[in-house]
């Protein structure tokens, strides 16, 4: 436990981070990769170039300093970070490296304010945070290693099948090379995938939602081909692979998953945000314990609408499923035109008792969350997943 003095010092110096802004995290990452370039095998360098990772780290540091005397407030955020770390196999030995560069950064940027007493308090605070994360991540690794079909670190998988789902989305069926069982996953979780694209100096690790319900034989990911140049290095590389090629996978991870399939459930997605929803939808319909399932999806047009025929077929078989679609730039029978407007179908939805799951671009989810709140949906029944570094809605 931290002393009252340490807590007081960290909270009182937290505004220093706000004053410095993301300059702190930019300096930190430059320092980190300069002294420890091998860590570029782990970090998403596309997020570094876009500034998203710096922004996420700055928010995390500010939140930790602000709530250091009541860490229960950060329980969900820390769980999300722990799962993300597990999908990249972050190890205890990485924490002293990161901590050393964080302290070094604060000393270099704020030499007058960051006195010896302040440094000692921040070192104590970071050590506590590191210990919490290491403990939680160790439990995740132990679970993944000991559960039937589980493993530690990476495991080689072969691409068994490729299926074109839309103009931009392709699905990959991935099976272990050793033909042994794979660990089950919760509907909504993701896989960490490690590849080394052509002409890239470092490995690249990305997270992709598992787009099918759990089984013990394989996984399916459905990958949108992003634009180049930009964040699409890995997605374009995956699209270039053929059946028979291999990739390395970390075990399933993620704290965004179906909580209670016995309640009416509403799945809401945009674009490739439908991938975790497919796993949830299949699970709900197979278990047939939810009285009603609703699936709302938005995309640009029919060309970009992945799994459209599959969803229609599901609805024909399962009377408990009702689905609604919005096309932003196209009109079609039984499809709404424009941006998703929940009020259009609000009278059909279980607003007072249902659980609502959101996945898609951050702006889309923020807008949908506000619409749901305006319709008196309780905030605790709205669950969401954000791609890349986590952001609040």
Can you tell me the number of structural domains? 3
- Work out the helix count: 11
Give the CA-CA distance, first to last residue.
31 Å
Number of strands: 12
- What structural class should be given to the helix and strand makeup? alpha/beta
Write down the Rg: 22 Å
What is the chains' assembly state? single chain
| Percent of residues in beta strands | 15-25%
The mean pLDDT is 91
Question: Which strand order spans the largest sheet, edge to edge or round the barrel?
Answer: 4-3-6-1-2-5
Q: Please estimate the helix content.
A: 25-40%
> What CATH architecture of the largest domain would you give?
Orthogonal Bundle
SSE string = HHHHHHHEEEEEHEEHEHEEEHE
Detail the poorly predicted runs. none
**Biggest β-sheet description:** 6 strands, antiparallel
- C-alpha geometry: globular
The CATH topology of the largest domain is what?
Globin-like
Which CATH class of the largest domain applies here?
Mainly Alpha
């Amino acid at each position: 436990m931290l002393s009252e003095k340490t807590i007081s010092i960290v909270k009182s110096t937290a505004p220093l981070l706000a004053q410095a802004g993301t300059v702190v995290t930019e300096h930190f990452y430059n320092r980190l990769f300069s002294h420890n370039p091998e860590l570029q095998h782990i970090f998403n360098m596309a997020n570094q170039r876009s500034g998203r990772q710096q922004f996420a780290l700055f928010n995390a540091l500010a939140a930790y300093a602000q709530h250091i005397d009541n860490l229960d407030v950060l329980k969900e955020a820390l769980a999300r970070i722990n799962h993300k770390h597990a999908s990249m196999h972050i190890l205890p030995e990485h924490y002293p490296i990161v901590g050393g560069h964080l302290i070094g950064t604060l000393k270099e940027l704020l030499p007058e304010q960051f006195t010896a007493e302040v440094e000692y308090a921040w070192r104590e605070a970071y050590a506590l945070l590191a210990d919490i994360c290491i403990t939680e991540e160790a439990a995740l690794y132990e679970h993944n290693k000991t559960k039937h079909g589980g493993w530690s670190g990476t495991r080689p998988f072969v691409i068994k099948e490729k299926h074109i789902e839309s103009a931009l989305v392709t699905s990959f069926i991935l099976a272990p090379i050793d033909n042994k069982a794979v660990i089950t996953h919760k509907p909504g979780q993701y896989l960490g995938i490690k590849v080394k694209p052509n002409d890239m100096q470092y490995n690249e690790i990305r997270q992709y939602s598992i787009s099918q319900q759990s089984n013990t034989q394989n996984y399916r990911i459905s990958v949108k081909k992003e634009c180049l140049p930009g964040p699409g290095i890995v997605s374009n590389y995956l699209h270039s692979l053929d059946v028979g090629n291999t990739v390395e996978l970390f075990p399933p991870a993620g704290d965004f998953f179906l909580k209670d399939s016995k309640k009416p459930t509403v799945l809401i997605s945009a674009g490739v945000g439908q991938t975790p929803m497919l796993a949830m939808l299949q699970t709900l319909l197979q278990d047939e314990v939810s009285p009603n399932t609703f699936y709302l999806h938005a995309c640009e047009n029919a060309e970009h609408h992945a799994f459209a025929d599959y969803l229609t077929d599901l609805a024909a078989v399962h009377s408990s499923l009702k689905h609604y679609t919005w096309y932003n730039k196209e009109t079609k029978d039984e499809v709404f035109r424009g941006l998703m407007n929940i009020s259009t179908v609000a009278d059909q939805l279980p607003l007072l008792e249902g659980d609502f799951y959101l996945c898609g671009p951050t702006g889309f989810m923020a807008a949908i969350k506000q619409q749901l709140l305006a319709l008196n949906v309780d905030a605790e029944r709205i669950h969401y997943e954000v791609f890349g570094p986590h952001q609040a809605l």
